[in-house]
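Late entry, evening session. Most of the bench is empty. Finally got around to the prediction I had been postponing all week. Sequence below, unchanged from the version circulated by S.P.
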Amino acid sequence: MPKNRFLFLLILLLGLILAAAACGGSDDDTDTPAPTDTPPATIEAEQDAAAEPVFESISVTEAYTRFSQSDTAILVDVREENEWAATGYPEGAELIALTTFEQEVPRKLTDKNTEVYLICNSGNRSMSASEYLLQMGYMHVINIEGGFQDWMSAGLPIEQYTP
């Protein structure tokens, strides 16, 4: 028994020594970052540039206001043709169904720096379209929350669809 106890204590002592060595460090334990020649604004800009681009999600009323005040923004309704025929679509919208979105986008949305507002029926399909546009390099992608249902409820202008 004493031999097992000695071995146990020896292993415990070695473990403590290793733990103490691993926790060691410099005598200066301050949290002060190392000095740098790069100004803080430049560091933040570099971090922002490296970040994944994200789309913005806004309400239908904010989308309508911003879209109406822009000469270059594009509003895209990604619902399907049968939905446009049944309910109409937001005034001034480009009609690009989500089922043909990947094929139509390069032809209809040629400027990747233009603000692109995306709307569907409730906001789910337009989120998918927003993610796709970001992957394709579009810089200003805005998803319209609540979709066409909220657009109609807000009494915003609608055009009738004619094939």
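Two things to note before I forget:
Confidence is low (pLDDT under 50) at residues 22-35, 38-47.
Residues 7 and 101 are 71 Å apart (CA to CA).
Will write this up properly tomorrow.
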